[in-house]
Amino acid sequence: MASQSFPDVVVKWNGKEYVITGLNFDKSIKDLKEAIKDETGVLPERQKLLGLKYKGKSPSEEILLGDLNLKPKTKIMMMGTREEILADVLEPPADMPEVMNDFDIEEEEILMENREEYLTKIQRRVKDYTIDLISDPRPGKKLLVLDIDYTLFDHRSVAETGTELMRPYLHEFLASAYEDYDIAIWSATSMKWIKAKMEELGVMTNVNYKLCFMVDSLAMITVDTGPKYGVIEVKPPLGVIWGKFEQYNSQNTIMFDDLRRNFLMNPQNGLKIRPFCKAHMNRHKDQELLKLADYLKEIAQLEDLSSLNHKKWES
User: Which of 31, 60, 83, 261 is the most buried (most CB within 10 A)?
Assistant: First the structure.
């Protein structure tokens, strides 16, 4: 059997079919993955093969092809991403502002919010920045603005698919929040990367909720925090959104981010979420979004959210 040629296998991936030839019955699934890599460019450790069974279960890489009893031209489906594409989607682009460690900005928050030069910058963003609606704002709904990296998604860890880096209960959280809030996404990256991540996570197509709009790095402004931290960029001040939409204001808006420095311009509206990182270690125990869903539900009926101390949200 070792000298016999193994039947050709058709691998369906990324909308195309690849015929894998030249294998023998004494080769293993690991060898099959290497052959698939030669055809598709997807590394073996990134490949998830669907449609292969051995004794009713998904076979390990050590199982020989001769033990699979496959017929010629058997079609299997592969999930996986080429390394360069995975890096594009899951890693921040080269022009992304450097991620700084969070710092105590209590005093800076008070000073920044109403400084004339920053209010002028915000007005300029209101005039020049375009927000494209994904779905229309709904009458009577509050606004929830969400960061992506380390808030909804671990963008640094390695995985076969983006969904493995998704924060646990993301879709349940968004579905619950959608009942009371319009949902916006903001990120310090370009719109291209925001859309790629949202599509990778299945957020754009989920039937249980809709995003209202997304805001990217072009809406950010620079602020001078003084000699201690210098000039930094902060995510789009909520004043940009409030200037674009009459429905939203400081009383009905809440935003989540893992860095408090992104709340410099709107300290009363920001809730610092615990960062989600090392997904492979933490995704089975992280329940932050479940707890935050309860919190959002509790405060949804309040007329004015700006009077709340979100630092005490857990209590």
Answer: 261
76-134 pLDDT per residue, tens: 878 776 665 555 544 444 444 444 455 454 444 444 555 667 778 888 888 999 999 99
CA distances from 247 to 139, 215, 244 (A): 8, 17, 9
pLDDT in tens, 278-302: 888 888 899 999 999 999 999 999 9
CA 216 – CA 129 distance, rounded (Å): 10
Which whole-number Å values give the CA distances from 137 to 212, 223, 254, in the listed order? Answer: 6, 30, 15
Quickly list DSSP for the chain. Answer: -TTSBPPPEEEEETTEEEEE---BTT-BHHHHHHHHHHHH---GGG-EEES--BTTBPPPTTSBGGGS-PPTTEEEEEE---HHHHHHHHS--TTSPPPPPP---HHHHHHHTT-HHHHHHHHHHHHH----BSSPPPTT-EEEEE--BTTTB-SSS--SSGGGGBPTTHHHHHHHHHTTEEEEEE-SS-HHHHHHHHHHTT-TT-TT----EEE-GGG-EEEE--TTT-EEEEPPPHHHHHHH-TT--TTSEEEEES-GGGGTT-GGGEEEPPP---HHHHTTT--HHHHHHHHHHHHTT-S-STTS-GGGTT-
pTM: 0.65
> Which CATH number does the domain 9-80 belong to among 3.10.20.90, 3.40.140.10, 3.55.10.10, 3.40.50.10580?
3.10.20.90
Same fold yes or no, 9-80 and 86-312:
no
CATH number of the 86-312 domain: 3.40.50.1000
**pLDDT tens column, 12-63:** 877 788 998 888 888 889 989 999 988 888 888 878 787 787 887 778 888 8
Domain ranges of the chain: 9-80, 86-312
